[in-house]
Protein 1
Amino acid sequence: MGHKLEHKVAIVTGATSGMGKAIARSFVANGASVVLSGRNIERGKKLAKELGDQALFLSGDVSIGTYNEQLVRLAVERFGRLDILSLNAGILGIGSVTDLEEHVWNTTLHTNLSSIFLLSKYAIPELQKQPGSSILINASIAAYKSFPQHPAYCASKAGSLALMRQMAVEYAPSIRVNAMCPGPVDTPLLHDSAKAFNDPSKAVENAGKSTLLNRLGKASDVANLALFLVSEDASWITGSAMTIDGGKINT
């Protein structure tokens, strides 16, 4: 059992699936207490039970301000403080610019980008009370690279990096703010993303082959980077976007 996050308290959004779930597990294994956020009540309760007394689950929609206020309040009331935000909630909003429904564009931007603003808005006053606090945004290589049928997703991820850098400037030196940019990671979101292509299974296979390491990433790969970036091991890193993509060499 590690102790990199002993006595720390984190909120992890997107915690009921994929990378968010792996990050929550890693944080608890390394000593943190965690408030889990997600929409799937069954999966959230199951994960909280698995993680034990160090975890609580609150279901809700991260694009709604009052829900984000509740997450912060729950962390402070139950665990006494707040040290870390791990922001992983995301949806795809698949469709070209001409085909995409306006409400899908709006929902994607609200879920992927506005949620970062909202939770940070309510969490920052608590984070400022704790030395070594940090905000970690799970962005994507889609912030840099273009993918067919993903305009809302790409735009939201690029926006999340701009917001990360701005908050790093605004709240230094008391809060470190960083981002991760994962490439093709074997999660449900990747398989959903592949549906934008004519042959989804082939698209997933090609995604792994397009990396220098010739495989898809694992959620645990990203969780390892997340643990480093929120720990004291990364105490001199802020305003940075770390690419973790197996050396992806093309779009």
Protein 2
Amino acid sequence: MEAHALLRREGFDVSSYGTGAHVKLPGPSLREPNVYEFGTPYKQMFDDLRRKDPELYKRNGLLPMLKRNSSVKLAPQRWQENAADGSFDVVFSFEERVFDMVVEDLHNREHALMKTVLVINLDVKDNHEEAAVGARLALDLCKELEAAESWDDTIDEIVPAFERQHRRKLLYSISFY
């Protein structure tokens, strides 16, 4: 959501999705996560966590994160159920497992449009500081892709240059709708 918020502020047309079965947020222990259905409004999650333990969830950053998320969109959406409605030029993931799920989903769909989509993974640790860094890197890469006359022709040059400049390894795949 950090990348979603930043890219939107910078004028990009952005959607964001999760790929799991549920939305899982840290709880009081690793064995007690807070689990919500996709579509549960961020405000409802915020109110729920504030009722449970406001100090814990303020201290670990969940309450501020949920407040930010609610200003970006109403609720989390699941890729497998919602992304079929759209057509994207580029899809970013920030975890290799998610990248694999998105690529697999795209390969298993009917390719009615035969429109290319670039799927990129930029691994980011799941914490607030890394999310801010990852969002900035995603913005930089989006700007490079947008500046290219055709990313289809230059992606094999853009990715290695980005990796050298930012010392981050990217995975990418070209799929179709």
